[in-house]
Structures are given as structure tokens and as C-alpha cells.
Amino acid sequence: MSSGVRDGARMAVLSHRFQAIVRRMSNTLARSGRSGVLNTARDFSCCVLTAAGDVLMTGDSPPIHVMGGPDLQARSMLDFYPVPRAGDAFLHNSPYHGNTHAADHSILVPVVDAAGVHRFTVLAKAHQADCGNSVPTTYMASARDVYEEGALIFPVVRVQEDYEDCEDILRMCEMRIRVPDQWRGDYLAVLGSARIGELAVLQLADEVGWETLDAFANNWLDYSEARMEAVIRELPAGEAITTTCHDPFPGVPDGVPLQAKVTVRPEDGMIDVDLRDNPDCVPSGLNLSEASSRTAALIGVFNSIDAGVPHNQGSFRRIQVHLRENCCVGIVRHPHSTSVATTNLANRVGNIVQRAMAEIGDGIGLAEVGSGMSPSEAVVSGVDRRHGAVPYVNQIFTGPNGGAGAPSADGWLTMSDLGSGGTLLLDSVEIDELKQPIVIHRRALAIDTEGAGRHRGAPGLEVEYGPVAGEMEAVYANDGSINPMMGARGGLAGAPSAQLMRNQDGELVELDICGPVLVQAGERLVARTSGGGGYGDPRDRDPEAVAQDVREGWISRERALEVYGVVVAE
Amino acid sequence: MASERATAMRLSVDIGGTFTDLVVERDLELRLFKSPTVPGDPVQGILNVLTMAAEAHAAPLEGFLRGVDTFVHATTRGLNAVLTGNTAKTAFLTTAGHPDVLLLREGGRRQPFDFTVPYPEPYVPRSLTFEVDGRITSTGEVLHPLDLAALERTCDRLLDKQVEAVAVCLLWATVNPEHELAVGEVLRRRLPDVPYTLSHALNPSLREYRRASSTAIDASLKPLMSEYIHSLTSRLREAGLGGRILMVTSMGGVVDVHDASAAPILTINSGPSMAPVAGRAYGTADLGAETVIVADAGGTTYDVTLVRHGEIPTTRTAWIGPEGLGHMTGLPSIDVKSVGAGGGSIAWVDAGGLLHVGPQSAGSVPGPACYGRGGVRATVTDAALVLGYLDPAAFSSGSMTLDPEAALAAVTRDVAGPLGLSAIDAAYAVLELTTEQMVHAIEEITLQQGIDPARAVLVGGGGAAGLNAAAVAGRLGSRRLIVPAVGAALAAAGALMSDLTAVYSATVPALTSAFDIDGVNAALSGLVARCGEFAEHVGATWDDALVTLFAEARYPQQIWELEVPLRVERFASAADVAAFSDDFHATHQQVLGITDAASPVEIVGWGARVRVPLRAAADALTARVTGDAAVSVRQAYVHGVGMTDVPVRPLGTIAPGEMLQGPMLIESPFTTVVVADKSTGTVSDSGSLIIQPRSIHV
């Protein structure tokens, strides 16, 4: 085996081997996890990094998890533990040290060879059902700072040494995290996933040798960079500035205005994303961590181009993301809270980046993906009295936001949001009603809520649910009710989201955009999720596609005529 | 049951896309026949291959068929109808407020950065979806009564729209079926000629999408499959067939043809489900192996199935079409992992200089460049030809010739040039990467099912089995590779080795920390009773039936259940419950690598699998390989050596017990087995080729 030469045949085989390792880690996590957010929604990720901390191989996961954060985390591990040892495992959830937000518990395991040399790092990260916040949600938008947020923060904390648990830390968690058995089960799943990854890398090295793996890592990153460079060289040159505004929220009564400047430089094979001209950190959980700022910008770019380019540190080298310290979409300054850093502002940032790409040239970029954590995706809690009196707290995933219109396809119906990339699974109504004492009365697509376009966005969904008996608390942090998701290149915005309460008399009352809300027996939450924006002028849409949307009840006959200019016969 | 009639013939027919395979079992020997599939009239294709076999047995068709005791049939007709949308015009009746069960599926976009893939259509369009007023809760309580007047109006619309089948799936019908049953009554009265399916009767399982999807697929196939089965049985009877006609199920068993007609979804994945049955039989007969990986390599796909401790693992998440984009069958089905890695897979090099094989395939039309049928791109078959692994003059048992120059030109242009390698090295790289993709498929399914591939025996089948099977076995570190002589028709052979089977389940949740022994025992005895009824239904006695009980269990809050066999038919004491917990912890450790011994175990359902063997243990597995080809030598590639003289051995020339030493090429009917290193081989009593990969016996 010629290890030093870049051999496209050899590299193909080894890239398959590393992909298999990541898949194996993911499979373990998905199947052994306990909480719904982990095993049903699959809100987790796994990756392999080089010893220096470059992201080498990622798997299928919510994009917000893995692009621009694991490298920061792996490097922070080396800051605190310059010589990691075999048997070490580190718990890392600190948004001030490279993690996304406090609710994502990451386990980093250094892969160390027989001579004690640190060769690779494997990382498994999973969103927790609870992380010890001061209120029962992992998305605490109203937190003015990390102290009010209340989450336990682990800035690279060794939780295993010589493959044995450091029980002190686990005991602390069990005293501060709600439903501790569930947390303990999820901790085991995340740790097990990282350990399986470690073992698999060791076995591969036994087979082909560390030198071959090191050479592969270099070659693979160079190859990925070359692919990215080639793609950028084919793009039109240009610069676009796009703006948006997050809806008003606790701590930010006027909302958060944002802008992105995107520059495509085909001659250099580079793309620049500048997020520096944005507000300082805000007294709210909305601030982005450095990881989520970078990742959001990267997602916006990768959503805009050929999906075949590998996503790793090699291709990332071709995108410069300019961030500012103490900026709400930059590098967060402690003790500002980043509790909702993977969703609200992250989605806004990614959306304006991909929309800027669309404005630079037809056939690239994307409209805006529906955003916001609607009551249809709330953390619900209360006491289940169906068999005794058992407290429950869980995030339900009953109604995702609509996807964005794209250059060659309509929006994806169950997209959820930009950060998840639609990867999250959707709850079964029956499973939700079994796990929690709730009834989901309605879940259906909302007619005429799509962002019209040559390729239309996906419509929002309508979800109506309430407790079977007794009271239920729902915590959510929506967006898009005032500032909807914009279309690109002449495409229209999707319909705004909405949250209402149907009271015991059947009347609908508007609710605040941000929970918590107490729902009594006989009352129901009514949510409509955001529609995705359209791509291109709706009058250019294929009339047959418009007619099909009418026949299938996605849009009304009136809308077909008014917005698309298509007469559809009865 | 029919063991005393050893001289009676048993037939099995598998209709594939290209060929209709027939395996004839007579006098404890198997013979294989292939005839082109007749797409417009598949029964004619069956009659053609039967005629071919009758001629080989020097008998008129009628006389030949008169000697047949059992006729087992597998067909992709239902599957193809679903894939091509040629099913009945079907209406979907759903609980009010939930019209989009089939559209939403279970979420989970598989390729998050690819915005060129459109959102998939629902199995039944929204314009044929009707909401039924009435709601039952998770405890079976009626929250809103069924609105019968509205249902009558819905029936008017079904009549207006001239629907041909109706699928009914209401929330929580599995806990309380009264609303579904009432809907069924109204449908029978109002649309007496339109077949319908009720979800709780077909698939009493949790999760409305899966249940609705099974129900919709089943209903949509009823008109078509009833007609097909009627045509099949009447024409076979007319031709002289007197024996029993059975259909292969997705569960790797067989059912009487009339049961298949009543629930056509049961047979939808019948193709790949038979390969592990054959794999199990050969694993046991040739090597006494209990854990087997079965790899069936066709022209376009590579299907992997398993045998674990003698049992064939199943899944409830089988998709028709791509995962997440197609439609879930929702019913237990043999767990199959398919990848697009076949002889027709196209090899190409991307702009960054990385080699890829597939996912595009040249299929059989236009086919590989060497077929000379219009294909120009380099494929796996072309690479194999360049390496000398295939005989250009006698491909597929002499049924076609190949063009080596076209293969060389394609490999040179598409792979060798861009990679800067010689044509030979490039062709080898293509096969090596293909091997890796096959290993991937195997690792994925073995991982899911908790099997260590290195401890399993690999069984290779399918027309393209031989090219990579030995390399795959070496890469996995398998102890042995078996290539059965009937390997090219593994599915059809498996159909002769299968049993009458059924699975019953009971949703009686339980927790080991608060175990309701009486409730669980009542459920278990109910399941055992239903197995007995099944045995009687198929004309057997209680003594013929083999019943296995199992639990679908997990740690509390998990959502993926593991199947754990029960050691007892009823729980007598706390010790039995503790033993069950231990079994669960051990299974969890084995499959997922961790265990939480302090945690109670939650059982979400109990199940019983009943198997009525079609005949006693003296299985006929031995295949007669005829042919008078002689031993020869061909220039072929050996890694580390290059192109060199390699002996070519027709399988028929190898005596059982003779020790073979690689490198060698072994030509068995319809496939060539490539042993490109110093692995050794023998032929078993059943006629199978057994390879001992080099990596294991250095």
C-alpha cells in the first residue's frame, strides 16, 4: 500500500471505512438513547477528527451540530489536556469553548495508540431532554444570562479515566437534571457511541497502520478542499447583502435585526461571509455561540451549492466566516446566554446567507427555510395520572416548519428548520399520546401558507393538542410570526407562524411568541408553523404543478389565479 | 407432512425482472432452470420454464405436472405494481384531523444538503383521503362517537369517485377496534364489490403511519393480486398441476395461495426473503453453521440477509422504494439490506480524482460496455473481464459472449486515465471498491442485528456472486464462504426449504419491576392458542407446529425494541422474570455495546412465531451439476503478481473432498467464482463450493 501518494482508489476505500465508523457510532446512539429528543427526533451527531482537531468525517446528522464546532471543541480539549490518555473521556457542553449550546452534551474520546500517541479524536454529541436549566426546557429564550439559564456547564470535564466513570460528576448531574434516569441512560448511549468509534478507529489502524491513516486524513482534506475550490470557480462572481429581523422576544422587545454580506470570489475559489456588522450580545438566550455562528454561515453556503462536496475541514477552508467578539451572531462573551443558539438566530443567519447566494446567481442558493420552535415542538411537562402520578418532561415533535423553494425543486414539507436540515424524525401521534397524557386533535398541512415561487416553499402545518386531564405546561420559543420567511429571486415569503389557545368555549385567543404557557383540561394549543419561502417568480411556475397543488388541496383555486396566474377548472 | 413421499416432485418458481427461475426437487436432488420472464403475461413465463423442465425430464408438461406434490411461488408482481404506481385506485379513510398520515410519513430527510430531491407523494393522494369523525384515546376510551351519518355521505363520494379499494386506519384502533369494525360494516353494505382492509386486523401495531401504510398498500393490491392468483391457479390446474400451491411471504415462510390473496401485502417482499432460508439450509448442511450472512448479488443490487442462531431476523421498518422516500410496509419482514452494487454498477472518477462505483447502474440494458448492447461506460463486469475473471466466449453458462476490447477501452477511458493507473490496476481498484461497498452493506445489517461478521459463515448467491464473494469473505474475516451449486437461484431454492409460518402479537405492556404475571401469562397462552389454530388451518396437527415465543422489549423511554426469545411458555415465578431481564441485558450488550443492569425492562409487546415444516428433516439440498467442460487455464489477475496463468475448474469436475488451492477460477452454473489469492477450497457433499479465506488460515 503506497501510503504517501494521493491515490484516488485507495482514498475511496478508506473514506468508506471512516464513513462506516461514523455510521456505527450513530446507530448505537439512536438505538440505545432514552429520551425522545434523542431516539425519536435523532437530535445528535457523531464525527471523527484528526489529532490536531480538524473535522475529518461526519455522518448524517442535523447540520447545525457538526460543521463549525467539533473542531473548536477538540482544540479546547487539547488546551486543557495537552496529552490526552487512552481511557479518557471528556464531557463538553460549554458554548464558551466550542460547543453549540448547553443542552448538547458532547463526549470527546481521544484515540491513542499503543505508544501513547494521540492519533484521532471521536466526538458524539446529543441534545438532552433536560440540562438542569432553571425552568423545564432546554431552550430558555428568556434567560438574561447563563446564571438565570441555570444549565450545568462542563467546559471539557473528564468523566472517564482508564475507561472508568468519574462517579462524582455523574452524581452532580443526577442532582441537577430532571428525570435523572433518563439522563443517565442518554449519557450511557453517548459514551457508548464514542467508545465504539474509538474501538473501530483502533481496529482500522491495526489493519492498515497509523501512517496510512494519517496520510489518508491529509489527502482526504486536500481532496475535499479541491472539490470545493472547483465548485466555487464555477460560480458567478458577486456580492450581496441580505437582511432579516428575528421577531420580538423576551429581552429584545424590538426583535433582533441581522445582516449578512456574502462575497463569491471564483477567481480565488473562495467565499466570504461577513457577520460582523450585527448587534452586540443581547440579554436573552438567543445569542449564538461561536460554533453555531460559524456553522449557520457554513450551512447557508453548503445548502447553496452541489451537495456532493464532502463536508469537512478541507472544504471549510474555502469559506471564510468573519465573526466579531461579543456579537449576538458572533463569538459569545461569558456570561451571556446561548440557550437557544442552535435554532432561532442560527436559522435566521443561515437563511440570509443562502438567500444572498441566490441573489448572486440564478440556479444557486435557496429561499428561506421555515423557522421557529412552535408550540407544535414544545417541551411539555406535568404529571401523568393515568397510572399513578408520574412527572413527565419531554420535547414533542409534532409539526415541523416548511422547507424552502430551491433552484430545481419545491420545499421539503417536514423540513423543521435550517439547523436540522429536515433530519429530525416526526413524532407518531400514537407514540406521543402514549408517552404523555395529551391528545393531538389535529395535524394537517395548512392550505395557502406556502411561499409562492417558480419552485414554491412548503406550507406550514396546523397542530392542535391539549392535556387529557389536569394541566400541562408547554415551553416553546417561536419565530416567524411577525417577520416571515422570505423568498429568493422574486419568490414570495411563506405565511407567518401563529400560536393560539382554544379555550373551553372553543374561542381562539392569541398567545405570546414565547412560552411557557399553562394549558388546563379542556383547553388546547393551536399552532401553525412557518411556511418556507419560494424561489423565483411564481408566475413562472409550471401551470401543471399549480393545478396539481390545487387538486391535492395544497393551495386554493383563488390563490392559483391571484398569485400564480393560473386558472384551474373545477 | 409429506415426508414419506420422497419421490414426489416439488417445484419452486421465482419470477425476477429478467429471468424466471425454476428449481425442481426430485429424488433428493435439485435442478435449476431459467427462462426469460414474460412481462406482459408472467404466468406464460412460468409455463415456458415448466415446459423446459418437462422436456429435460423427457415428459409431456401434463405428465410432468401430475407428479408435482407442492408448487411454491415467489413473485415481484405486487412489488412492481407499487413501485410503478399500477395499483388499484384506492381511498384512504383516516381519523378526523389527521388527513396527512401517509403524506408526512415519519419525517427524517436522509440527505440534508441535497435540495434537488422533491418531497415524495403520499401513497394515496389527498384527493382520495377522507376523514372519519370519531376519536378513541390511548386507553381505548371513546372521546367522540363515530359519526355514522357523515360516513354514509363519505360512501356517496367513494361511489362517485369510483374507487377500486378502500384502506381504513383509525387512531388507536389497535386498542379499541369498534370504530374500524363499524366502518367496515358500512363499506360492506354500501360498496359490496370494493375490497377493503382494516388496519387493526391486518397489522395490530403501534404508530399510525406504519399501520396506515400497510393498510393502504394491502388494499391497493387486492384487485390486482386476486386476479393474478386466480389466473395462476386456474392455468396451472388446467396444465395438469394437482399439488398444493403456496406463495412465499416477506417473512421467509410460505402461505396457501388463498391466504395470500386475502392479504396480498404479506407476499410483497417475497423475492429477497427466501435467500436466507436457503442460506440457513446450506450453512447447516455444509458446515453446521448457525450464524450465516447471505449475500445475493444480482445485476443491479446486492441484497444482504442474515441467519442469527438459526433464526432469520426480521424488521418492522422495511421500505418499498428508498428509505424515507418510498412507502413503509409496516409489517414484519425479513431484514434485508440492499445496495446498488452489482455487475452493472458504473465506475467513474470525480473532478477531485476520487474513484466511485455506482450508484448509477447500466443494468442489463444497455448493460456493461462488454455486452455490446449500447452501453459504453465502464462497469464492474467490464473490470472483471479486463482482469480475466470472466470467460468472454461463454458468459452466463454460454448464453452470451462478451467483448473484451470494449471493456478494456471503457475501463481505460473512464477509470485508468483519470486515476493515472494502468488498465489492470484500475480494474482491480474498481473491484476492490465494489468489495468495500458490499462489506459496508454487510456491516450495516450485522451491526443492527448484533452479529460479528467475522464469526459468521458467508453464503454467496446470485448471478454476480462469484466476482467478489471470496474477496468479501476475506475482508470480513469470515471463517468460510459457501457458494451453493444452486446459488444462481438461491431464492427459488430457498422456497423449497421454507415452512408454513405465521406471527401473532399481543400488545400487553409490562415492566419487570412491576410485573403482572397473570396478565402476561394470559396473553402468552392466547398467543399459543392462536398458533395452534394456525396449524389446524393449514391442515397440520399441534404436534407439527413449532412455536417460539418472544418479547419486544427495551429500557424505559427507549423507542427501539429488541426481540428477546422467552425461555418459558409462562412465567411461574419472580425468578423467571429475573432470568428474562438478564437475557434482555445480555442482548442489549450484544447489539448496542452497553447495558444498564440497574434499570427495569419494559416489554411493549409479546409475540409468537409458528412454523409448520412442510416435510421432515431429510432435506434435499444436493444439486446435480452437469456439463462436460474440461479443466483449462486463463490469463487472470492475481494481486501482488499481475496477469498470470490461472487454472479454471468447472464445478462439475471437482470431486467432494478434493482440496483446491487458489489462485483459481471456478465456473459453476451461471456464475464464476474468483479466488484471486491463496485461499483454499473444497466441494461439499451437497455440491457447494466451500472457500476458506486466506486471511483466516495463514
The CATH architecture name of the domain at 86-225 in chain B reads: 3-Layer(aba) Sandwich
What amount of the residues of chain B lies in strands? 25-35%
Total number of helices of chain B: 18
Strand order in space, largest sheet of chain A: 2-1-5-4-3-6-7
Structure description:
The complex is a heterodimer of chains A (570) and B (698). Chain A is of the alpha+beta class. Chain A folds into two domains: 8-224, no CATH class; 366-570, no CATH class. Chain A has helices at 8-32, 36-39, 63-66, 70-80, 146-149, 167-176, 180-208, 210-233, 290-302, 313-316, 344-360, 429-435, 543-551, 557-562; strands spanning 44-50, 55-58, 89-92, 104-112, 118-127, 157-161, 164-165, 238-246, 256-265, 270-274, 319-322, 379-384, 390-395, 438-445, 461-467, 472-475, 498-502, 508-510, 517-519, 524-528. In chain A, helix 9 (290-302) packs parallel to helix 11 (344-360). Among the domains of chain B are: 1-70, Ubiquitin-like (UB roll) (Roll), CATH 3.10.20; 86-225, 3-Layer(aba) Sandwich (Rossmann fold), CATH 3.40.50; 500-612, no CATH class. In chain B, helix 12 (380-386) crosses helix 14 (423-449). Chain B is globular. In chain B, the strands form nine sheets. An eight-stranded mixed β-sheet of chain B has the order 19-14-13-22-23-36-35-32, with helices on both faces. Chain A: InterPro entries: Hydantoinase_B, Oxoprolinase-like. Chain A: This is Methylhydantoinase. Chain A: GO terms for molecular function: 5-oxoprolinase (ATP-hydrolyzing) activity.
How are the elements arranged and paired?
The complex is a heterodimer of chains A (570) and B (698).
Chain A: H1 8-32, H2 36-39, E1 44-50, E2 55-58, H3 63-66, H4 70-80, E3 89-92, E4 104-112, E5 118-127, H5 146-149, E6 157-161, E7 164-165, H6 167-176, H7 180-208, H8 210-233, E8 238-246, E9 256-265, E10 270-274, H9 290-302, H10 313-316, E11 319-322, H11 344-360, E12 379-384, E13 390-395, H12 429-435, E14 438-445, E15 461-467, E16 472-475, E17 498-502, E18 508-510, E19 517-519, E20 524-528, H13 543-551, H14 557-562
Chain B: E1 9-15, E2 19-26, E3 29-36, H1 42-56, H2 61-66, E4 68-75, H3 77-84, E5 90-95, H4 101-104, E6 129-132, E7 135-136, E8 142-144, H5 148-160, E9 165-169, H6 178-190, E10 196-198, H7 199-202, H8 208-239, E11 244-248, E12 254-256, H9 257-262, H10 270-273, H11 275-287, E13 292-297, E14 302-307, E15 314-315, E16 319-320, E17 327-328, E18 333-334, E19 337-339, E20 345-349, E21 355-361, H12 380-386, H13 404-419, H14 423-449, E22 457-461, H15 465-476, E23 481-483, H16 490-495, E24 500-506, E25 510-511, H17 517-537, E26 546-554, E27 562-565, H18 574-592, E28 602-612, E29 622-623, E30 632-638, E31 642-650, E32 660-661, E33 664-668, E34 671-675, E35 680-683, E36 689-692
Protein name (chain A): Methylhydantoinase
InterPro entries (chain A): Hydantoinase_B, Oxoprolinase-like
GO molecular function, one term (chain A): 5-oxoprolinase (ATP-hydrolyzing) activity
